[in-house]
Specification:
Chain lengths: 300, 414
């Protein structure tokens, strides 16, 4: 007797969400299915849409074999691993520190919050260009400090094959840490004052309160932030293009650049294969969220 | 039947009305000619096109062909085509042409007799698919040139080199004086360097057999092994820290005297021209790297994506005609440093390097196809990536690089 009622409950909001559902199904789900299906074909420039065409162009795992034999792709995936892990870890650590700092009831908190959040308002292209100037050996940081007297100072990460990806990490962190700080601060502010008072009465030092009491309570916020930050790291593109153009050589290449470059110069299927691998990486990132969401329901 | 003839009469009447109106149109043109010399050349095209009453809407794309190609192709595929676009001659737009996305220029080609006026025939043939002319070749560029700054060598007490081997021999003396022996820029210029070395060391027939006929035995064999040894010698005299992002910056290093030599196509000549240097006095241009003077038939062609507006289509034909007209061919090619598509023009104002190129062009045995006329863009990009890594990463041996190269040739689509 409940079932028909629950279907028609909130009918107006369900109807209102129909366009969004339609877009999600056709664009996101449909597009994803097309991408993965195309990665098993050998299409070159023109996309195909009918099942017969897919059957004719089917080549099994050939695109994936080529992908994992391509030196440039191996470099790209390695760089993504480096960038993704460093960016996520340091964004969390620095963001959490900044949020704790903000939470200490300091004066001018609003001013500091704005300053730390400002870089996030800049697009990654602007971030990339600004940091390209700062990290330029001739007239950026290295040149300026040398002119100030420290002749042997060197900070040539942009032109150094070994370090170029770390230059991208720095620029990315500068831009993205503000968001983590804002999210963590919101989570911290959501903690009841009673908890703090109880911890103080029990004589627990502040740092232990943060680590063993507050952070476990902030688990939903931490997981949400992790998904946002990590999925952003997987999609890094404009920052690399603006900062290093993937160079010097191929040293700071990332998968998104590989996808874009292969899709429109005669290797469309190869680009969709690379794209599918990135989709896999994003799905892996979602696993913590899945555990938290469905774990919670079990408890309830 | 009655309705059919009525419809035909109506269509004829409506189209007559359009023919009578002679509307001028805005034509958006995409290209990647953004260096000093190139911009001066494209301005000639714009000037001539604007004189026909239409408007040249410039859509220059910053970066190289490798940056511009995905943008151009994705726009045409996505249904937002430009009015006209530069591309390199060869297979880049083959799939787009087969899908019927490009305007058919056969009528215009017949009317203006392009088959007899434009030379060499290979360029117009490359623009002809299934008997239809789909693009117009506007210039000839060759990639096999070495550019040297004579003053730099004289200051170092050396004779300016006559060929690649002499440059390698001079390299230690130049490095001792803090001069970059060979300026190199990342990306496709390394492909140019390695292909030029292939032609110089292994010879044109081997190069064509490997790239065009996909001769795997030759690609894996001793002739190509010598090529990879020569590239190895080149990368040994190049300090990775001296490599610059763009091709014109590498040429700029030679112009300013910080570097002694650069291997680049004849479009580098435009840069020397803008810097007001004289060939034979301030700089040398050595075709075939000074060894065997040969030329490949690279260059640029213009495609015209199909457009719904008949005024734009008419303007597209006017642009195609303008681009191969005598006056424009002279004006454009002189500024660009490339060779014109026609013999019946007066090029006495051309500099010495262009005259050298014209002389070689006159001998068909010394002319061979451009890489994009022999291999698809995807394979060329993969070779570019392999050569870039080989050049930058000293841990990769010439044998390993050759094996990767053979793998790419093996998998290249027919």
């Amino acid at each position: 007797m409940d079932k028909p009622n629950s279907l028609f409950r909130n009918l107006s909001s369900k109807i209102a969400s129909l366009p969004m559902v339609f877009i999600v199904l056709t664009v996101f789900v449909g597009g994803t299915m097309w991408t993965v299906a195309s990665s098993f074909t050998n299409i070159k420039t023109l996309p195909i849409f009918t099942p017969i065409e897919f059957y004719d162009a089917f080549v099994g795992l050939a695109q994936y074999e080529r992908l994992w034999k391509t030196q440039r792709w191996i470099i790209s995936i390695t760089n993504l691993g480096i960038y993704g892990s460093l960016y996520t870890i340091f964004a969390f650590v620095i963001g959490f520190w900044l949020a704790v700092f903000m939470d200490q009831k300091i004066r001018l908190e609003g001013v500091f919050r704005t300053i730390y959040l400002y870089p996030f308002a800049l697009s990654l292209i602007v971030t990339g260009h600004v940091w390209a100037w700062i990290l330029n050996p001739a007239f950026g940081l290295e040149g300026t400090i040398r002119k100030m007297g420290w002749e042997t100072f060197s900070f040539d990460w942009l032109t150094n094959r070994e370090m170029s990806i770390y230059a991208v990490v720095i620029a990315g962190l500068w831009q993205g840490t503000g968001l983590v700080m804002a999210l963590m601060l919101a989570g911290l502010r959501g903690i009841d004052d009673e908890i703090w008072r109880a911890a103080r009465i029990d004589g627990i030092p502040k740092w232990r309160t943060y680590i063993q009491i507050i952070m476990p309570m902030m688990r939903p916020v931490l997981v949400t932030t992790f998904v946002i930050v990590a999925s952003g790291a997987v999609r890094v593109y404009d920052l690399v293009v603006a900062l290093t153009q993937g160079g010097p050589g191929l040293s700071s290449q990332v998968p998104t650049i590989y996808v874009y470059e292969t899709m429109f110069v005669g290797a469309l299927a190869q680009g969709t294969a690379a794209s599918s691998i990135m989709l896999l990486a994003t799905a892996v990132i979602l696993i913590p969220w899945v555990i938290v969401e469905f774990g919670k329901q079990k408890q309830a | 039947m009655k309705y059919k003839s009525l419809a035909v009469a109506l269509a004829a009447a409506v189209s007559m009305a359009f023919i009578g109106s002679a509307k001028a149109a805005d034509v958006e043109v995409t290209h990647w000619w953004t260096s000093g010399g190139e911009a001066a050349a494209v301005a000639e095209f714009a000037k001539a096109f604007n004189a026909t009453g239409n408007k040249w809407v410039d859509g220059a794309i910053a970066g190289s062909g490798d940056v511009a190609r995905p943008i151009i192709i994705s726009r045409i595929l996505g249904g937002n085509p430009m009015g006209a676009t530069q591309l390199n001659p060869g297979k880049d737009a083959d799939d787009l042409v087969k899908a019927g996305l490009m305007e058919d220029l056969t009528e215009l080609a017949k009317k203006e007799d392009w088959a007899h006026i434009l030379r060499p025939k290979s360029q117009l043939e490359g623009c002809t698919v299934d008997g239809k002319v789909v693009c117009v070749p506007v210039n000839l560029h060759s990639g096999q040139w070495m550019w040297t700054n004579r003053k730099v060598f004289k200051d170092a007490g050396l004779e300016p080199p006559k060929n690649w081997n002499e440059l390698i021999a001079d390299a230690p003396a130049l490095q001792a004086k803090g001069i970059i022996p060979l300026s190199v820029s990342e990306g496709w210029p390394i492909s140019t360097l390695t292909e030029d070395l292939t032609v110089a060391v292994a010879g044109v027939p081997t190069y064509v057999k490997v790239y065009k006929d996909r001769d795997l035995a030759l690609a894996a064999g001793p002739e190509m092994a010598k090529v990879f040894q020569a590239i190895d010698a080149a990368r040994k005299i190049v300090d990775p820290k001296s490599m610059v992002p763009q091709w014109n910056e590498a040429v700029g290093l030679v112009i300013s005297g910080k570097a002694a030599a650069n291997v680049m196509g004849d479009w580098a000549g435009g840069e020397f021209q803008v810097a007001k240097m004289k060939a034979g006095e301030d700089y040398d241009c050595l075709p075939g790297l000074g060894l065997e003077p040969v030329l490949n038939t690279g260059g640029d062609v213009f495609y015209f994506p199909k457009n719904k507006d008949p005024a734009v289509t008419k303007a597209q034909f006017e642009m195609a005609s303008m681009m191969v007209s005598k006056e424009v061919q002279v004006a454009f090619n002189l500024k660009k440093g490339s060779l014109p598509m026609r013999d019946d023009v007066d090029l006495n104002a051309a500099n010495d390097c262009m005259k050298k190129g014209l002389a070689i062009l006159g001998d068909p045995t010394k002319v061979f196809p451009n890489n994009s006329q022999m291999l698809d863009r995807d394979s060329l990009n993969q070779i570019r990536d392999v050569m870039n890594e080989f050049f930058a990463n000293k841990d990769i041996t010439p044998e390993q690089a050759q094996a990767q190269f053979v793998e790419i040739i093996k998998n290249a689509p027919k």
